């Protein structure tokens, strides 16, 4: 019988939780429950072992610069598994600080450069002129999204042929003040500056739930085949 438990890895839940993004995980849990699935949510924190392929969904929420410097020291341990997971097209959502750390680096306000996972070719820099804070609205492939942003980092794609924005701005800044785009979609990795939480937008939440259930099916079939050998 197919497993009805969806496993979610919440990266550094205890440290990257300043902006209420745990609401995203709660919405996913609620939508899955409506479809008869239960969820197991594991906080993967400093020093914890982690294999992304043991999970149906990886979530990485926003955090302040200080917490980002702390976890950046632990993060390289997970580079290999997350690189493969993202490149294989498995579902992951990175919000703000969590989004930034999937790229090459984030140069902060104090001039410190926080090394990211360097999985996708984009970088983030603090620019003294403004903190981007306020309501956002943008058009995504799933329709309009309304959210709230609160960040100093400005994100720029280094390989625009490989990376596609999540949406086109209607209101607010998104990735940076110049490009008028928000976030990133690469295979089934979604990076975004949207808090609110973003998944109160059910068009986006349902699209992610679909990705999760497809990967869950594949993961369960593989586990059953491995067992049969
Ligand atoms: N500390 C980062 C910045 O200010 C991320 C903020 C966040 O996650 N909201 O850009």
From TrEMBL:
<protein>
    <recommendedName>
        <fullName>Lipid II isoglutaminyl synthase (glutamine-hydrolyzing) subunit GatD</fullName>
        <ecNumber>6.3.5.13</ecNumber>
        <ecNumber>3.5.1.2</ecNumber>
    </recommendedName>
</protein>
<comment type="pathway">
    <text>Cell wall biogenesis; peptidoglycan biosynthesis.</text>
</comment>
<keyword id="KW-0436">Ligase</keyword>
<keyword id="KW-0961">Cell wall biogenesis/degradation</keyword>
<dbReference type="InterPro" id="IPR043702">
    <property type="entry name" value="Lipid_II_synth_GatD"/>
</dbReference>
<keyword id="KW-0573">Peptidoglycan synthesis</keyword>
<keyword id="KW-0378">Hydrolase</keyword>
<keyword id="KW-0133">Cell shape</keyword>
<feature type="active site" description="Nucleophile">
    <location>
        <position position="96"/>
    </location>
</feature>
<dbReference type="InterPro" id="IPR029062">
    <property type="entry name" value="Class_I_gatase-like"/>
</dbReference>
<comment type="function">
    <text>The lipid II isoglutaminyl synthase complex catalyzes the formation of alpha-D-isoglutamine in the cell wall lipid II stem peptide. The GatD subunit catalyzes the hydrolysis of glutamine to glutamate and ammonia. The resulting ammonia molecule is channeled to the active site of MurT.</text>
</comment>
<feature type="binding site">
    <location>
        <position position="131"/>
    </location>
    <ligand>
        <name>substrate</name>
    </ligand>
</feature>
<dbReference type="InterPro" id="IPR011698">
    <property type="entry name" value="GATase_3"/>
</dbReference>
<keyword id="KW-0315">Glutamine amidotransferase</keyword>
<feature type="domain" description="CobB/CobQ-like glutamine amidotransferase">
    <location>
        <begin position="7"/>
        <end position="200"/>
    </location>
</feature>
<dbReference type="Pfam" id="PF07685">
    <property type="entry name" value="GATase_3"/>
</dbReference>
<comment type="similarity">
    <text>Belongs to the CobB/CobQ family. GatD subfamily.</text>
</comment>
<comment type="subunit">
    <text>Forms a heterodimer with MurT.</text>
</comment>
<dbReference type="InterPro" id="IPR033949">
    <property type="entry name" value="CobQ_GATase1"/>
</dbReference>
<feature type="active site">
    <location>
        <position position="195"/>
    </location>
</feature>
